[in-house]
Amino acid sequence: MGHIALPRRLFLWSMAAIYMSAFVSLYMQIPGLYGNDGLLPARKQLRYSGDKSPWEQFLGSPTVLWWSPQLGLATHTSVELLCAAGVALSLAATLLEPLRDSLVFFCLWLLYMSLQQVGQVFLYFQWDSLLLETGFLCILVAPLGLLRGGCRAVREHDRITFWLLRWLLFRLMFASGVVKLTSRCPTWWALTYHYETQCIPTSLAWFAHQLPVWWQKLSVVGTFVIEIPVPFLFFSPLRRLRLGAFYLQPRSKLGSWLCYLVELAVWAGLVYGAIVCFDLRLDWAKKSVSSRTVFTFHHFNQFLKRVTIPCIWLGVLSLTWEMISAMFRFGATLQWTVICVAAAAMFTISLVPFTHLEHESGTRLWPGARQAYEAVDRFHLVNSYGLFRRMTGVGGRPEVVIEGSLDQVTWTEIDFMYKPGNVSTALPLVTPHQPRLDWQMWFAALGDHTQSPWFTGLMYRLLQGKSDVEELLQPDVSEYPFHAQPPAYLRAHRYKYWFTAPKEDGSYPMRWWKRVYVEEFYPTVHLGDPLFEAMLLQHGLKDKSPPRPASNATVPRAVRWLRSQVRGHSAPVLIWSLFACSAALCLLQVLRHTDPHTGGRKESPAGLKSGETDKDVTSGAAEKEEEEEEEEEEEEDVDKGEPEEGADEDKNDTGEEEPIDDEDEPKQKDDPGMRKRK
């Protein structure tokens, strides 16, 4: 169980850091997205009913925002308060290990789920579902120390809860690879489009786009190998295979060589399979690697039908093995029983979204699993995944460019902070911030504006000159072209963008993009336009009644003060600053608890060392008491004048004492206290 302790600590710290970045990123965008003057006000999403209690409404739509009226808080104030609480709690968890507790992670999961319920289209992404599912597993993985007196020792069921994480990672990776092949998208066989058509490309994507075509195709081969066959190794009984590394652990010589041969055979099989399935060939003349698919969609579909059910049984056997091994090692305790039941339930309901990959396998699933999944679906405990199913933007990346004017003669483009717009502007680094509006603009460009009703709300708020929405486009409002006076007219056009190529002499071009005008995306509108007013009413974006005035109570004033402190700051800079502070403080804590002489950890004030349990301390104290009693008995024997062992060594063979040389050792007075000290 020793190798579980460190991964558990690293995983829980990482999840606390991910929660922190997610809450900070969302907090910076709440006023523009869900405020009273935002694109989709949260108060319109929650319909408070006097006939139902908050608990009944919570069961229908699980969010703690149903209790806002009882607390005297407006909906948008409660949303900001929940997000700020998530930031504070996750930041504290990154700094203090005792707070990486099951109870704390339950609170973080509940807070994010409450926000996701009112997030609407801006929080309906796969990474939001993935964070909720992983966050729920953190509740099972994390120790329950706050309610049990701070006990954080490794438990017998940690291997079982960690298995659920492996199963989640398997479903995520395997499904992401399968959906690419089942979509029949012909452009997924090369990454020549992906770098410039991804949702929010960065400056590094421009350089990756310039790589040779053969390398782009080889990258796709590597992607499919990593996402489809490699995840099966997550259930390997060999830990080294699960880690994907060729190294030998200290075992018997024969066992080490056998494990080494098995690992070598597995990796060689993966390489051979990739060569056969993708016809990999070295071209020494061109110094490249050619690749093409030698299997068809029908072949892969037959493979998927044969492998889906065995995948389920592989999971059953692997989970059963972890349960039985934990039982034989620690015994069938009550805690072990509860965790086994919870793990089996999570695995069972996860089979429903997993079998969405293959329809026939889903029909053979136990009906009880489907009923259980439907009962807990609104809590997002398990989800279906499939990243980048189809390659979009083939033939040019579509982008929507908004233009504003004061006189309908001179038009000025309104640039976004993160999405492509100005062809000469380098795209900034966005990770780990998630700009929700910029991301949705990419989806809006793929279709008509009627498929994105929120876009009409965006035009409406920009015409009104709402600063909260303007900050979504440019955090520094002074960079917004209409910060002094809102535009009187707005319109939007669709363009197609491509990355530029290096010049013939190898130098870099002055522009990052080149673009071509395609068509009008949104007609010219202004406030009071009958057509525009009709669209606002159609999508329910027109304010039928003004929101309640801001309250002067303590909590709302504190929320407004906190907002004033972060307004105008860049979200990525704020997130990275918190990361740096957390890492620095954690490093100081490690250095403070490290003994400079031995390099190990010092004893804590309570006398507990790292990883030491109360049982170890009790046994150590008993041994110390026994040693003290033995020392007291020896001292009593000395005081009584009983000869000690080796006392006759000072006598010669005749029984007389040998003289002591005064020059070698000075005489000392025969003092009983001196003998006692000796």
TrEMBL record:
Q: Membrane spanning segments where?
A: 12-30, 73-96, 103-124, 130-148, 160-179, 214-236, 257-282, 302-321, 333-354
Which parts of the sequence belong to the Lipase maturation factor 1/2 C-terminal domain? 381-523
Enumerate the subcellular locations listed in this protein's record, separating them with semicolons: Endoplasmic reticulum membrane
Q: What ranges does the record list as Acidic residues composition bias?
A: 624-665
Q: How does it sit in the membrane?
A: Multi-pass membrane protein
Q: What is its main location?
A: endoplasmic reticulum
Q: Where is the composition biased (Basic and acidic residues)?
A: 595-604, 666-678
| Keywords, sorted A to Z | Endoplasmic reticulum, Glycoprotein, Membrane, Transmembrane, Transmembrane helix
Pfam name, any one:
LMF1_C
Q: Which GO terms describe its biological process?
A: protein maturation
One GO CC term, this protein: endoplasmic reticulum membrane
Indicate the segments annotated as coiled coil, or none if absent: none
InterPro entries linked to this entry:
LMF, LMF1/2_C, LMF1/2_N
Q: Where is the stretch described as Disordered?
A: 595-678
Domain named Lipase maturation factor 1/2 N-terminal is located at 124-249
Task: Look up keyword Cytoplasm and say if it applies.
Answer: no
Q: State the similarity comment.
A: Belongs to the lipase maturation factor family.
Instruction: Tell me, in a sentence or two, what this protein's role is.
Output: Involved in the maturation of specific proteins in the endoplasmic reticulum.
The protein, known as: Lipase maturation factor
Organism source for this protein?
Answer: Muraenolepis orangiensis
